Amino acid sequence: MDVERRALVSTDMLFLLTDFPVEIFASGSSILIWNRIGKNIYKEHKNIWIGTCRYRHGGRSIFLSKSVYYGTYVFESNSNQMRRFPHDIQIEPVQHLKDFKIFYHVPFQVYCDDPFWVPPFWNEMKDFFKKKNPFWSHAECQLFIARKNNEVVGRIAAIIDSTYCETVGEKIGYFGFFECVQDFECANALLQIAQDWLIAKEMKVMQGPIDGRIDVGCGFLYTGYNSRPSLLSTYSPAYYVTYAEKFGMKKVGDQFLYYIDLTKPIPKKLEEKARQCVASEVQVRPFNRLRTQKELKWWAELFLETFSDHWGYVPVSVEEVKTRFGVKQLRWFVDSRLFLVAEIEGSPIAYIWSTPDYNQIFQKMNGRLGPFQILLFLCKKRQINAGKLHLIGIKKEFRNQNIGSLLNYKILIEMKNRGYIGAEVGWIDEENAAAHTTIAITGATLYKKHRVFEKDITV
Fold this sequence. Notes:
Number of helices: 13
Helix content: 25-40%
CATH topology of the largest domain: Aminopeptidase
Strand content: 25-35%
CATH superfamily of the largest domain: Gcn5-related N-acetyltransferase (GNAT)
Number of domains: 3
Number of strands: 22
C-alpha cells in the first residue's frame, strides 16, 4: 500500500473537468482510485476529494479536476436533461459547482451597466445551497440556467418548502433567484421550466420571486428604481414585473420600504410616546456581543413568537433561525448600539435590530470577501451615512404600550448622533397595519414597494 493509495466513491459523485495522468477504475456503483506512482495526490476534507485523476469505464476515459465534489450541495444531481425552447433558447439544470458558478454570475451580466445593483457575496450564496443548511431538511430545489445562441442569458430556481405547505395547507411552490436579460422569450422559458418542475412535484400554485426564504429575497422591485438597495433588500429591473404579468401571474402582496429623513427633527409625537414608555418599568440595553450565544437563544425564540402571525412565516427550529440574516457572523459585525433590547425585570420582551447601511461598501466589494475587501470594509465603514431598521419584535402581551416607539426613538437618536442623513425601514408587509401605524409616528414616508406574484398551476 506504500505504492497504491485507494478509496471508494460513488459514480454519481464526480465533478468532471480536465486531464491528469492518474486512473480510476469503475466496478458497479463504486470507483477505485489509485495512484500507480505512489504519490499522495488526493485527500479527503469535508466531502471533497482534492486530487487529479482519470476515470476509465466501459472502454472510455473521462478526465476529472483537482476537486471532485460529492453530496455537498442540494443542486447536485445526475439529471442532464436539457430542454429546448423556440428562438434558440435552451434550459439546462445546474448539476455541480461549475454550473453553479455560472448560475451565480448571471446577474453580473444583467446589471453590468446598472449603477445601483449590489453584487451578492459568493460565499454567502454558496453556503445557502449546502445540504448542511437546516432549511434543506424540509425543502428541495432545482436550479436552471438559460442559454440563447449558446450565450448565458438567465437563471431561475424552483423551490418547495414542505413545512410552509403544511403550515398554509396548500401545495405552494416558489420560483426564486430569477435573473434574465431583457428578452421576454428567455424569461418565459425560465418561468415555464420552473412551473413544469413544480407541477411534476404536484404543486398547485407557483409564487415568487421568493429565494427559498422570505428573508433571503422576496418580491420584484415594483417602485423606487432610482437608488441603491439597502442592506438585505432585493433589487430588480422594471421589466421583471412586466414579464411576470405577461406570464399570467397576479399579485399576492406587496412589501413596503419606508424612508426616514434624519436631516429633519425627530417628530414630537414619537418623543412623547417614548417618554411615556420610559416612565414605566421598561429598561433598554444594547445587545451584548461578548455573550452572543446566550443572547441568540432568547432572540431566536422571541423571533419565532413575534412573527408567528406574519405573512410567509414558517415554524422552524431555533437552530435554523440562527442561520438567518447573517446571524452566524453576528458577533463580528453587529453594531450593539443599533441592536437594542427592551427588558422588564431583566427579561427580554422586545428588540430592534438595525445596522449601518453596509451596502454602501458592499457594492464596491463585487461579491468577494478576501483580505482586500475586509480591509476596504474596515477603512470605509465609518464613512457610511445612512442606516437600516430591519426587524422589531415585541411579545404579544406587551404590544400597544409604546415599546416600539421607544426603541425606534432611541435608534433614530443614535443615527442622528452619527451624522446619518437617512434610514430605511422594512420591509413591512402591506397587511401589517400595526407596523405601518408605528412607523408612521417616526415621520417615515413610503419609499419602495416589492411585489410577490402567483399563478394557479393546477393541471
